[in-house]
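Risk register update: the risk of archive-format incompatibility is retired. Evidence:
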Amino acid sequence: MGQTSPAQKALNQRMAELIRVAVRNAPSVTAVAAAAGIPRTTLQNIISETNERPVTVDQAARLAVALGVPAAEWMDQLRALAIELGATAATRDDLAARRNQRPPAAQKTAARRPRKKD
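Archived output:
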């Protein structure tokens, strides 16, 4: 598992907090997990105060539907936090830099290919 930046960690903690608050108002963790189609233990890990694992987009979307929370509401709150942390620009720059890099295997393959003569 790769390292996460402080901004990513803060965003994940906020997502877990939003889910935690919504689950508190639900009848039971088991019912929410079943409605979301995720294991109960996974949901318990997400809502745990000591959770360090990231919440996937799929999990967040499933839980939003199961809890009757508009996913856009959660995304707006995460977007506001990302802007506050300055994470949006950094993420965009990181993605652009990665897009311009070639994996080492592709570089080796390209170096071995003979060039075509016209």
